[in-house]
Amino acid sequence: MPIYAVDKPLHFTSHDVVAKSRKLLQTRKIGHTGTLDPLATGVLVLCVNGSTKLVQFMESDSKDYLAFIALGASTLTLDAEGPITETAEFEMPEAAILQEALNGFLGPQQQIPPQFSAIQVGGVRAYDIARQGGSIDLPARSITIHELTLLGVSDAQSLPALGFGPKETGWDLDPAGRQFSFPEQLGNFPVLMVRCSVSSGSYIRALARDVGLALGVPAHLAGLVRTRAGKYHLQDCVTLEALPEATGFPETSALEFPVLEVDVELARRLRSGQKIRHDTDGRLVILHEGALVAVAEVTDGVLKVLRVWH
User: Which residues are designated catalytic?
Assistant: First the structure.
């Protein structure tokens, strides 16, 4: 079954998108490869029916974003949902100083997730406790930030009028480009417009908080657009309304693992769960005549099937 890249609308949860897609595609079996907050928009990858087997291998895909970091106010949720918990007057640093602060977050690091997150501790989700006015000690998680590029500085009220478009270096300001939907702002704060590339598990809301801390200014995320998830880009996405007529992407294009073509006999053996010898370590996509047979992993010269397609 195909894989779809949907442009998630503002105020929809990822679960909302899945629920509506089930009705539009007339199937119950749909999964997504990475949650987007309700106040974020952009790429949400949906796997349908048989392609849901791929979700476990795609959840760790890296992702790109346009992040809009408002300076001068922090919020309980770390984004524009609010409420505001602190404000401060400050003098906007020069662009070089802002970029230097962003550069300090590049590479592997430990990030403390937001209190308003779906992370479970002791069987309880953090956001359930936060909504009741409590807090929980969330362990820092290992993430990697590959790119943080300052595209410019705006103000919160001007964001919907700005245009952005894909370029060779990634999404950037483009007067003739696309205008995005933003949540209602909590004030007309100055906003850093930042192009991000991050590992799976990174919270851009937490990054906004931490960038503010590095600058000595309270901060929150004024808006967020996911422009890439794994191999799928925003410019390749369809709207929810266009989903029933969309062609989608083949399962065989989803993973970035090397491909191993096998004959009919080896395909049969792998589908039956047999282990075989292979001389390249790592994960592989196994194909027979262009069709998915399995995703496998080679360790110490032994190929072991992880998931199989019949």
Answer: 37
